[in-house]
Amino acid sequence: MGYESSPSYDDGAYDGLVVHCSDGRFSRQFNDFVVNHLGILRCDRVVVPGGPGALTLERESEPEGMRVIDDVSMLCTVHEVDRVVLIQHDLCAYYLNCRGATEASLRGMQLEDMAYAVEIVRAATGIERVEGYIARLVGRVVVFDEVGGA
Ligand SMILES: [Zn+2]
User: Does domain 16-149 have CATH number 3.90.550.10?
Assistant: First the structure.
């Protein structure tokens, strides 16, 4: 006997698509924010290290169809999504280890990437409702602030 999940299969319309980092320290808070604050229950998620930051890289070495923006664009089309949410977060290892950020420069890089990622998503999908948020730590509490988009 396998494990039976209590929520039943839900084939209603999609409420949106969310792009956030894979960092497990923030995964429950991302879910709480998306479901309970934004009201996006049936959501597609693109979970990658760096979240929206991964949308901004030029990956010319990647074959067409293998970039993160291609995944976002495909899902928005196939699932008729009309709202996209991008979330960055404090202490992001992707920026600190892979993008050369320091604790001092991290927020500035994330804000710059967010503005660019919003443009990239709009251009690739034609969706106007693209929202940006940053999850910041206040002690051990995670607080979400809107930082860009519509
Ligand atoms: Zn991260």
Answer: no
